[in-house]
Each structure stands twice: as structure tokens, then as C-alpha cells.
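Shipment paperwork, digital attachment
Item: protein structure file
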Amino acid sequence: MLKVFFSICIALSGLLFIASRVNARDDKLLLPIADVLNGPDAQKKLDSSIKFFFGNQPHPKIITNFQSDVTNLKTNAFNKTDQRACEWVFLSALLSLEKRAKQLGANAVVNIISYYRKVPMSSDTQYECHAGTLMAGVALKGDFVKIETP
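Attachment content:
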């Protein structure tokens, strides 16, 4: 009986070790913003009346500053490539920024940076995504503004 108990304990310890290793994956990826913005999902879902400017990208003159805000989203990464999960959650983060911009009366979000775990990463061309076995996450921070329109 004691032998069976020890066998079960060893098996459970092995499973716990494996489970902790599976959940521990947190790969940092820097992916192209353009791949998402130019993709069919973004073309269908994003409202063209709200403009996005990443990092230090030049933008039209700001008429009104509203506020800064952060969006921090996760998505199910199960059975998806890291890139696909990251693209999906990045688009979701943009949709969240877009929704907030509309609530505030803004027509643009400027100075958008990646802000995963409150660590700023500014780029005009890339966003930061963290992918694990079960989840992928993107955090963005930006300033909601009204800009001059042509």
C-alpha cells in the first residue's frame, strides 16, 4: 500500500512540474503594426474616422487633448500560432482604443506605445505581444486627441 502511495505522489509531482512549465511560457514578440492594419480583419472592423499614430509618427496639429489611457487585453492562444493570437489581441486593443476615442469625442489616438506590464516600448512600426501556451496579451497606451482634418 505504501509503495502505491509513493508511486502516486511521484506521478502527481511530475504532472505538476509539467503543468508549471507549460503555463510559464511568456515569449516576448515584436511584430509589425502594418500586418494588422492592412489585414482584412482590420479593414472590416476598424472605423476609418479614428486615426492611429504609433510611437513618434508625425500627425496633424492637435486641436484638443482629452486624456491618456491604457488598454490591456488577453486572448485565448490555444490552437493558434503565436503570431495569429498576437494579431488578434492587437486588433482587439485597437478596437478598445477606438471605442474610448469615440466616447471622448476624439478623432485620433497619438503617441501609442506598447505598455506590457507597465513597461513602455515605443516604435513607429512594431508592437509588443507576450504569448504563452494558453494566452496572448497586448497592452497599449495612447493619448486621445482631436486633430485637424483635411
